[in-house]
Specification:
There is one protein chain. Helix 6 (about 140-145) runs parallel beside helix 12 (about 295-310) and helix 7 (about 150-160) crosses helix 11 (about 275-290). The chain has 12 helices and 7 strands. The protein has helices at about 5-15, 20-30, 35-45, 75-85, 90-110, 140-145, 150-160, 165-170, 220-230, 255-270, 275-290, 295-310; strands at about 175-180, 185, 190, 195-200, 200-205, 205-210, 215-220. About 45% of the residues lie in helices and about 5% in strands. The protein has 2 domains: about 5-110, no CATH class; about 140-315, Orthogonal Bundle (hpI Integrase, Chain A), CATH 1.10.443.
Length: about 325
Amino acid sequence: MSVADFVATKFVPEHVAFKTAAGQRHYHAILKHVLTPEQVDKIFGVQTDGSKTKLKRYPGWPYIGEIRLRDAHSGDVQSLVRAALQNGYSSQTVKHIRNVVSAIFAHAIRERYFFGKNPTGSVELPGMTRKESHSLTLPETIKILKVMQYPECQMTLIAILTSMNMSEICGLQWKNVNLTVGSVNREGEIIPPRTIAVRKQWHRGELCDVRKCRRKNIEIPQPLFSLLLNLSRRSAFNGWSDFVLTSKAGTPINQANVSARRLKIIGKELQLPWLSWQVFRRTHTTLAYGFSMQAQHEMTKAVHTISVQNFSGMNSPPQKRG
């Protein structure tokens, strides 16, 4: 039995099939560096339409699909690692490749299709290179907010003031926001006064539940309360099942599109090329430690000014930048 045969008949149906949708997508993507992309698409039942965006077979790439399973050894896996490094793959991607191969042989050993030690055990990986972590000061935050439009301005504010991630922000619906001074019952769940209940996220084009560890109630700070109140008063898309931040058609915001079209351009304009959604979440932590009463006052004042200037952006097309 070849490695490709084992992956098709045993590994995918008995191991990968029981992973989450995200886990299955991960295996589908990484396996294309272990077997040929055509083999992987066939195993996963994906139609190959000749799209230019699909990963193509690399000439000379040391795929291991045709190697007999019992003959595979650490040198085969080391060749994959070496090829990935020579082609400029990140250390994290190289690690993913090694880990997927390790999972294949671990399953083969459990099922008694392979005897001996897992061939990935002695494979050497490159050291991880960590990128510098960035966060913003309060003056930098206000400066950035003043040049932002809808929806990146509102997305940024919610991230900084609550530490919600972008999937949670894009998936936030009005039924999970309580702007009143009393508790409310929403679909059998009590939401305390002035609270956001983090329950859903917009992930890969689907509305789904957040992980259990991410379920929480967040008290709405005053700057954010003013912003949400303005949003709730818009003329459309303010029903319980509507999203707090929407496109003109009422659909959830696509965080990747906003990042590519707006956030990266703003970062270049302000000489902050590392600007990202993750930076705003880290900014929440740094500001929280030094958030004096004066800082809170400055943030509230800035949000009020920004909200007045920015609110009309929800009903008009964004200006082009650059």
